[in-house]
Amino acid sequence: MKICCIGAGYVGGPTMAMIAKQCPDIDVHVVDINAQRIAAWNSEELPVYEPGLDEVVREARGRNLRFSTDVDGAIAAADMIFISVNTPTKTFGMGAGRAANLEYVEKCARQIARVSTGHKIVVEKSTLPVRTAEAVKRILSSNEHQATFDVLSNPEFLAEGTAIRDLLHPDRVLIGGESSAAIEALVDIYARWVPRERILTTNLWSSELSKLTANAFLAQRVSSINSISALCEATEADVDEVARAIGTDSRIGPKFLKASVGFGGSCFQKDILNLVYLCEYFGLHEVAEYWEQVIKMNDYQKRRFARRIVTTMFNTVSDKKIAIWGWAFKKDTNDTRESAAIYVCRDLLEERARLHIYDPRVSKDQIIRDLQQVMLTQDGELPPKKAELIDNNVVVEPDCYAAAEQAHAIAVLTEWDVFKQLDFRRVYHSMQQPSFVFDGRNILDHAALREIGFEVYAIGKGG
Ligand code: UDX
Ligand code: ADP
Fold first, then answer.
1. How confident is the model at residue 225 (pLDDT cuts 50, 70, 90)?
2. Ligand 1 mutation pick, 154, 329, 334, 342, max ligand atoms within 8 A of CB
3. pTM score
4. Which residues constitute the domain of residue 79?
């Protein structure tokens, strides 16, 4: 059995590494058009930071796991081809800002059609709008070599930061398809390490839609608790206490109720926008509006946090130094896509704050790129004044202490564990007075900080 995976990103890389680890007899070839990314997968410094990933890659790479840019060669040799390319939100034309851009998926399908001979199983791993498989099937069937295909949907539910654990012990594996033989071939792979009862099989469309629905429900929980956090701040209720109180109801459950500065990541916003677009397409305007509120609440939460910093600091942050702790969209990843930090910092920069940013895993280049990106005009240009603002008012620091030195405030934007283990007396004495802390993740010991002398503001906590 030979597997090929097109797309060596956050999903394709770790997922294929796990399959290769668990199935030493299966040849797994991961390909990408991005030569730099492939070089990184072949090096000691993997392009994706994920706890436990290095070990898995090290075990399988060179044995039955390969990374290369030979897309045609890998497709031609494979029995099963995973499509794991990016499906960002469209930025142009019909459905701009909502629909998924399926350009990369379609290009893959065309390339598979062009190169393939015999019979192959094509697996959609990327998150796609429901009924994409229809288009993929049509493109594949118009090939010149009489090749035949089965198309399966096998959405990935791993979360970044816990990818290896999620891949090793998934709550479920979902496989949608029409051909029972093809489904069985993929079930057999996962069954090497996942209990059979956790491998769910459905029709193609249910599988495609389940992925969008799962992400929409998860994001909705975060927006729901974040909406309550605003009410807590107005009423002196404590959002963590409320979350604990409702989370013990077994019907609600305790997970995904952590109020925050807003959800980020490559999936939640993109998938809900996609769901909204699909509902509009099918004329379901009320359903579209319902889900759109999840995004609106998230935007509100990010804006509200920046506004709270400004109003608390005597209505001006102009020329004040603010330490930004954390840039990644969550801890234990170097991924910054849609990170709340980007939007909060944009708002603070517009107020002329001086930002000193530290993240344990995100590079300076990435931070600057993210800020430039968020300040582009609709035509995709960076106005000189914004470029100047970033140049003059942003410093990326080597650690938390350096970022906080002489700062007026600290804003915690990612819940990295290291932020909890600092010498806060040292931090306090290095800062300007009054020293503000804005805990956008509710991870610090607020009572202890107040004891030292900090003025502490946190999500969903009055005072
Ligand atoms: C998500 C889904 O969990 C995963 O199943 C899917 O495959 C991809 O999208 P991911 O984006 O990697 O995974 O991270 P996740 O842990 O879901 O967190 C998303 C965002 O929500 C993060 O910014 C996180 O900080 C935030 N979040 C999560 C909260 O603010 N509060 C919570 O209680 C949980
Ligand atoms: P995800 O988080 O879904 O894994 P990423 O953006 O991290 O998304 O990864 C997607 C990868 O797919 C990128 O590395 C990109 O270069 C690759 N890719 C996109 N289109 C193609 C293609 N036609 N052939 C090969 N690789 C592709």
1. very high
2. 329
3. 0.94
4. 2-202
